[in-house]
Design a protein that fits this description.
The chain has about 70 residues and is α+β, with helices and mostly antiparallel strands. Helix content is about 35%, strand content about 15%. It is built from three helices and three strands; from the N terminus they run H-E-E-H-E-H. A three-stranded antiparallel beta sheet has the order 1-2-3. The radius of gyration is 15 Å and the shape is elongated.
Length: about 70
């Protein structure tokens, strides 16, 4: 069976944790920040874990990163 290719866009945007969860940057930080409250800006720093439904999709794009 041939090797599967990893989606290039997925490997740039997501990282896997040691337990198999998917880390990603938090959405909503790029523009329109004047509308966000200081609390939202603080809480959106760093990365976040994806929900199980979203992680399942991302794992299909990264077959060797499980």
């Amino acid at each position: 069976m041939p090797k599967l290719k990893t989606k290039s866009s997925a490997k740039k945007r997501f990282k896997m944790t040691a337990t198999g969860k998917v880390k990603a940057g938090v959405a909503g930080k790029r523009h329109n920040m004047i509308k966000r409250t200081p609390k939202q800006i603080r809480q959106n720093r760093g990365t976040d874990l994806l929900s199980d439904a979203d992680a399942k999709i991302v794992k299909k794009y990264m077959p060797y990163d499980r």
